[in-house]
Structures are given as C-alpha cells and as structure tokens.
UniProtKB/TrEMBL annotation:
GO molecular function: DNA binding; sigma factor activity
Entry keyword set: Sigma factor, Transcription, Transcription regulation
Protein name as annotated: RNA polymerase sigma-70 factor, ECF subfamily
Domain RNA polymerase sigma factor 70 region 4 type residues, every copy: 126-174
Keyword Chaperone set for record: no
GO biological process terms, semicolon-separated: DNA-templated transcription initiation
Domain RNA polymerase sigma-70 region: 30-92
Gene3D superfamilies according to UniProt: 1.10.1740.10, Winged helix-like DNA-binding domain superfamily/Winged helix DNA-binding domain
Family according to the record: Belongs to the sigma-70 factor family. ECF subfamily.
Keyword check for Transcription: yes
Taxonomic lineage of the native organism: Bacteria, Bacillati, Bacillota, Bacilli, Bacillales
Length: 192
C-alpha cells in the first residue's frame, strides 16, 4: 500500500464522521483486498473477509497510534482476520488459481509481465502455496507487500528474530521446491 497521510481522514472517523470512514475505505480497499486474496482460502471468501476487516477496523480505529504506519497497522488487522477466518474451518484454495484469475482480469499487461506471470504461476506460486501458513504470511508480506522485517514483526506481533528465522526457512523450502521443479524441466532455478 502506498503510504499517504491518512491522519486527517482518520481524525474525522474518530470524530464519528461516517463519510470519512467511507473515504478511508475507498482509499485502502484495493490494497487490503489484494493482501486478503494472497492469504485467504479462496476468492469467494475474500469478500467476506474484507467485510470482517472493515468491521474490525471500524471497531478498533480509536486505538490507532498516528505515529505508526497506517498501512502496517491495517495489514495487522488483515492478518488477524484471515487467521480468524481460517480457524473457522474454511477450506483453502491454491494461490495459483488466484493469480490465474488476476491474469485473466488484466488483459493489458506486456510480454515481460506475461512471461513473469507464467513463470510465477508454474514455479513460484505452487512453491509458496506449499509453505505452512506462518511461513507463507512472512513471504507474502515481505515480497508481495514489500514490508520490512521489522514491519512484519510488528504486524504479526512476533519478535524480529522469529521473522528472520521464518523468512530464512521459507526461502530454503522455496529453493528446494523450485530446484526440484526446475530439475524436472532440465534447468536450475534460484530464489533470492
């Protein structure tokens, strides 16, 4: 999420301005939805989880500290709501299917993006999907959301060392999986 100064909107929300909450929703919904889709069980669940995220945001917005990055704070709410949803027993849908759907929705990408998406769909995303949920959270936040290790620690409410450990283990598992896939195709692939 591009960090913009949302503090004036948030202040209005805290003062009970429902139009301001609608404005906050409009500014943040696309990025929130993308993260939910990366982490949620399936695309149909994403809309329901999105509703849960914004209900929770409305409920806890008064706890927001203006000295903190709003996008990181909202990412934390999203992570918790996705976890809550998963605890309710909803089945998982592979990340590959979601990427395929996004590619079909966006017909205006260039050849390089198309080739990258094919590579990601065939090699990277199936490897990410095989990670445990804890490792997948770190990888998605780090590479899909471009969060720092420190931001991830704050979002997941875990020590920085734990994030580093999960990140290292996830990359190791991704390399192993991708090397096996590349071996089947006769090439070596590396995750950096």
């Amino acid at each position: 999420m591009k960090e913009i100064n949302l503090n004036p909107i948030i202040a209005r929300v805290m003062d009970g301005d429902n139009d301001a909450f609608q404005e906050l929703y409009c500014v943040t919904k696309d990025d929130a939805y993308r993260l939910i889709v990366y982490l949620a069980s399936n695309k149909q669940d994403a809309s329901d989880i999105m509703s849960e995220v914004y209900l929770e945001l409305y409920r806890v917005i008064r706890r927001y500290d203006h000295n903190q990055s709003f996008s990181s704070w909202l990412n934390g709410i999203i992570i918790r709501q996705v976890r809550n949803w998963k605890r309710k027993g909803w089945r998982r849908l592979r990340l590959q299917d979601r990427v395929k759907q996004y590619c079909m929705e966006d017909a205006h990408y260039d050849l390089d993006n198309h080739l990258y998406n094919l590579y990601a769909k065939e090699i990277v995303l199936p490897a990410v999907e095989q990670l445990s949920h804890k490792l997948k959270e770190v990888i998605v936040l780090r590479y899909a959301r471009d969060c720092s290790i420190e931001e991830i620690a704050m979002i997941l409410n875990i020590p920085v060392g734990t994030v580093k450990s999960r990140h290292h283990l996830a990359l190791k598992q991704l390399r192993s999986h991708m090397d096996k896939q590349a071996g089947k195709k006769g090439a070596t692939t590396y995750v950096h």
